[in-house]
Amino acid sequence: MMIQEEPMSSAYEASSTEIQSIIMEWVEATEQFHRRYAKLTEVINSLQSNSHRQSNANNRSRLRKLITLRHHMSDVLMTLMVDMSGQKAGRAMQPSKPGQLHSHARLLTELNREIDAELTSVKTVAIA
Hints:
Layout: H1 16-53, H2 57-85, H3 98-127
Helix pairs in contact: 1-2, 1-3, 2-3
């Protein structure tokens, strides 16, 4: 008689409360990211309209840096959307895992800090 053993799953199963917390963390980070993207676009548009009136190297440099940051934000957002959709090549269709959502939320939070620093420096220069 052969006894078949069921392989024990060593995967951690998050509780529904943990999953809800992670989802809310992700939602909050995503909403903040979108608000900052809109604010960054507003600042870029303002700097572009001001650059026609008074153009100097410092303003052009700051504008390029902000445009690069916004482009990076767009790339990150598209990457996260593809990652969440499960459309990666060679990857079976599977829902996002709590760890993946948590990683995305941390990434977005870090980018939000970077954006805040840039927006603060733009406001400080504009006031001066």
